[in-house]
């Protein structure tokens, strides 16, 4: 996994910047109902630099938006965008009581977690802190979104890769196990994130897109095939990221299942 403290400074510029953030926020907000006739709260979990979180807050002034991230470098940048509204937190053990938020979002989080038990724990925590009638919104199928049918994808197709921990069917099953019901889906464009052969070679040598270690001889075999492609610096089509929404029943009165034996009625350690 990337060191997100080190990546924080360059993260936005290498991930589509404001254009992608706007597209992501629009997709998410389209799945979240307008706030009820009372103060409402949204948690943007794994908020990163806060580039999307800020847009969520600006678009829905009636929502009290909180950002949370485990990486101090990311959280510092997010806090500069939303002063007083960002905290450090572990997504598996959230420092909030049951039924705190009307909406919880996790964008580009679940695909980073290799352990399926941890993915299940994150989804369960998101469900636990949702109020009855609340909505959980998350990105799914992150890796598959980058496979756009290009010549680069054809070269990379035989590479070994791990099962997707954020596969839509898997996430849906975890959400249902946590008492949530499917409530819609959307997609948005990853502006400026189309791959080039040259950048893909560099990423492959960093260990991205595959379970191959960077020193595995097969990495250089893939790199040679990529280097033979035309237009080394021309971006192929942008990915389209999938988003799924899940709703907690409005008549839900019982707390979600405890995680790791912990009583779900108590705040978790951050």
Short description:
The chain has 270 residues and is α/β, with parallel strands linked by helices.
Q: Any overview of this molecule?
A:
α1 runs parallel beside α4 (72-81), α2 (17-29) crosses α3 and α5 crosses α8. With 270 residues, the protein is of the alpha/beta class. β4, α5 and β5 form a beta-alpha-beta unit. Strands 3-2-1-4-5-7-6 form a seven-stranded mixed beta sheet. The protein has a domain at 4-146 and 162-193 and 237-247: Rossmann fold, CATH 3.40.50.150. The chain has helices at 4-11, 17-29, 51-59, 72-81, 116-128, 142-145, 151-156, 168-177, 197-205, 217-227; strands spanning 40-45, 63-69, 86-88, 101-106, 130-140, 181-189, 240-247.
Key terms for this structure?
270 residues; alpha/beta; Rossmann fold; seven-stranded mixed β-sheet; 10 helices; disordered C terminus
Present the secondary structure layout.
Layout: H1 4-11, H2 17-29, E1 40-45, H3 51-59, E2 63-69, H4 72-81, E3 86-88, E4 101-106, H5 116-128, E5 130-140, H6 142-145, H7 151-156, H8 168-177, E6 181-189, H9 197-205, H10 217-227, E7 240-247
Parallel strand pairs: 1-2, 1-4, 2-3, 4-5
Antiparallel strand pairs: 5-7, 6-7
Helix pairs in contact: 1-4, 2-3, 5-8, 9-10
């Amino acid at each position: 996994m990337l060191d997100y403290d080190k990546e924080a400074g360059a993260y936005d510029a290498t991930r589509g910047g404001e254009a992608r953030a706007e597209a992501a926020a629009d997709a998410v907000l389209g799945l979240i109902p307008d706030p009820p006739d009372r103060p409402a709260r949204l948690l943007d979990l794994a908020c990163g630099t806060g580039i999307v979180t800020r847009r969520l807050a600006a678009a829905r002034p009636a929502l009290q938006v909180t950002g949370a991230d485990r990486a101090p470098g990311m959280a510092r940048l997010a806090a500069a965008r939303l002063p007083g509204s960002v905290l450090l937190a572990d997504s598996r053990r959230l420092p909030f009581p049951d039924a705190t938020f009307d909406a919880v979002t996790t964008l580009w989080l679940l695909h980073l977690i290799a352990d399926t038990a941890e993915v299940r724990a994150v989804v369960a925590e998101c469900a636990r802190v949702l109020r009855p009638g609340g909505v959980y919104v998350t990105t799914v199928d992150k890796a598959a979104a980058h496979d756009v049918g290009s010549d680069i994808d054809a070269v990379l197709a035989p590479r070994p890769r791990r099962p997707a921990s954020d596969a839509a069917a898997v996430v849906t099953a975890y959400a249902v196990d946590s008492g949530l019901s499917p409530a819609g889906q959307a997609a948005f464009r990853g502006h400026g994130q189309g791959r080039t052969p040259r950048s893909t070679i560099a990423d492959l040598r960093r260990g991205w897109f595959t379970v191959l270690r960077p020193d595995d001889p097969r990495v250089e075999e893939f790199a040679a095939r990529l280097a033979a492609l035309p237009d080394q610096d021309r971006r192929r089509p942008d990915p389209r990221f999938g988003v799924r929404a899940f709703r907690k029943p409005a008549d839900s009165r019982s707390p979600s299942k405890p995680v790791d034996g912990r009583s779900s009625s108590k705040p978790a350690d951050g």
